[in-house]
Known about the structure:
Blueprint: H1 2-34, H2 47-61, H3 66-78, H4 91-99, H5 102-111, H6 127-139
Helix pairs in contact: 3-6, 5-6
Amino acid sequence: xxxxxGFVAALTVSAAAAAAAAVAQSVDQEIAERIAPAGKTCxxxxxxxxxxxxxxxxxxxxxxxxxxxxxxxxxxxxxxxxAGAPKLGDVAAWAPRIAKGMDTLYSNAINGINAMPxxxxxxxxxxxxxxxxxxxxxxxxx
Length: 142
């Protein structure tokens, strides 16, 4: 009887040790998954960088219209005249600006002027899209 009890005790200890090892392995695996990097850094010249570099071009290749960009980014200030922004359609406010020429308007919109930040904070807009937006706003404000 003693040998049977010893055998059962040894079997129990062995099973408990195996279960503890499995739990420890599972915990270690869970920790490794939690602290794994969320992404991968891709440096210029690496194969993965080519796909990343192509993405912005393809995204803006279709191009957005001046009206779409105005409604998405410029409307906030130019609809209400925030911080001196000329309101869309306000002929008197736009006339002196238009008189300076389109190149000046383009430059001001791209580089910023007074309270207006560069590109009106539309950082995903290309220069051509900004120019299209200026054209749209000027056309609506003559």
